Amino acid sequence: MYDAQEQGTYARPAKKNTWKYNWMVIELKFDEEEGIEYYAVNMEVYTPGLNEEGNLYELTSANSKDLEKMAAANELIQISFLAKKLSSEFSPSEVRSKKVAKLIVSYNKLGNKRALTDADCDIFTKSLFGHDYKTVESALMKKMSGDDSDYEGLLEKSALLNNITPEHLNSLFETFVK
Fold this sequence. Notes:
Strand order of the largest sheet: 1-2-3
Order of helices and strands: HEEEHHHHHH
Distance between the termini: 57 Å
């Protein structure tokens, strides 16, 4: 593959912010003997996709076309946003809120792809609360029927795992578990 930069040939903006009044200064270098030449280009009459003879060539987008890379960037944004929200509203450490955010985003992504199994739910609840899915589910069911004892015990143990108070964990449950 021919690399113009390695061969000594390149064209690039001369400096940052050289675009002024629709003119841009371009630095052009063909080879070592000729040195560097500078050109002012009127961007008003410049038509992307046409060379100086007026022939059309392929335009490429400045945007990325790598869908996996875009999905990964989107996932990182979701994780970052959720981690900040968790950290500010429920007071876990930044490290724990980032782990929990990754867990929630991964769990939601998996849930969008296929039906979740009991094993998936077990992994999620053990990572998040330190208890298996059946224990968390039964504690929540008993709480709904009026018996808070199992739920309070679950909050105490899970709060230690997440390094937050049981009150913060309770508000987390009320926000995300319906």
